[in-house]
Specification:
two-stranded antiparallel ribbon; Nucleotidyltransferase, domain 5; alpha/beta; globular
Length: 309
């Protein structure tokens, strides 16, 4: 299993040019050995990293939330042991991950007409009012029709959330939820509640989407100062929060969280998941962010040149 886990991590880095990734590919297995406590596997440059048939057979076990979270936590503990991660200052944000489902699969829940004949039947849903209360994807029941901003197109997707520590931009928690209007704030509170040393005061930076009375009240209950970007009108962020110099610093540093989202959607291949169901996606996301942390930690420590990854 550990060899398959290494193969999965290396596969996340498979999009970089071979000539640029050779040194990184040689050194990464040695680092993974320290984390997973298995014998070292140090292939030659021309050796195959994994056998595709073995990887395919074990993928069902790899994309498991419990296994992936255990690996993610081991990577996080390594960062904390090396004093690379802060336990006081965090940032939080969410992104949409497109589901492996088409608009044609989004049908009324009471529709028992079955699938039209043919490989790719013509479906006309123009002019129809479709919403998540009355419709559901027959391909991925966990996917929701959603858009984050006005003017954007609605799509079937899941919502991914991460908690980033502000010292080095490492990801310390991951959550996958249904895509809805309150999912970001609810997931942020859940992740803040799981942070280590909860008796210690902390801060969290966030964008205007988190500017709500419920979120700010929830943060204060968790002994977290919410450094949330204030809305122009009807803001719940009061003067007690904005008067501190740390508030401006948090709003500046929180933008680094987009680097992690950019990495998992390009190198990590999570712009659109190829897995069906929220449980498998959670495992894939945890594995992807664990790999991102490994790349980031290696770059910080100077153990390898990871600019290509």
């Amino acid at each position: 299993m550990s060899a398959d886990l290494k193969g999965a991590v290396l596969r996340k880095l498979g999009d970089e040019p071979r000539w640029a990734g050779l040194r990184f590919r040689r050194e990464l297995p040695l680092w993974l050995t320290e984390i997973s406590a298995v014998p070292a596997y140090n292939p030659n440059i021309e050796d195959k990293v994994w056998d595709h048939s073995t990887f395919s057979a074990n993928r069902e076990r790899l994309f498991n939330e419990d296994l992936a979270r255990a690996f993610f936590e081991r990577v996080k503990l390594s960062a904390q042991w090396g004093r690379l991660a802060s336990d006081e200052h965090f940032s939080v944000d969410g992104t949409l991950i497109e589901a492996w489902a088409s608009h044609k699969s989004f049908k009324r829940k009471d529709d028992d007409s079955g699938t039209p004949p043919g490989r790719n039947p013509e479906v006309d849903f123009k002019g129809q009012e479709r919403c998540n209360d009355t419709h559901q994807s027959t391909t991925d029941a966990d996917a929701r029709l959603f858009k984050k901003s006005t003017g954007d197109k609605s799509r079937l997707c899941h919502m991914g959330h991460i908690l980033m520590e502000n010292r080095n931009g490492l990801i310390v928690d991951v959550e996958i939820t249904h895509a809805n209007g309150t999912g970001e704030r609810e997931a942020a509170l859940a992740m803040l509640g799981r942070r280590g040393n909860r008796n210690k005061r902390a801060t969290v930076g966030a964008d205007k989407g988190y500017d709500s009375k419920a979120f700010i009240k929830g943060c204060r209950k968790l002994k977290v100062t919410p450094h949330v970007a204030a809305k122009d009108k009807h803001s719940a962020v009061d003067g007690r929060i904005k008067r501190h110099e740390g508030y401006k610093t948090s709003l500046k540093v929180r933008k680094r969280i987009e680097e992690a989202f950019g990495w998992i959607k390009t190198v990590g291949g999570l712009a659109k998941t190829k897995l069906i169901g929220q449980a498998k996606l959670a495992g894939q996301a945890l594995l992807c962010f664990a790999t991102y942390n490994l790349v980031r930690m290696g770059s910080i420590g100077g153990w390898w040149d990871a600019h290509h990854a």
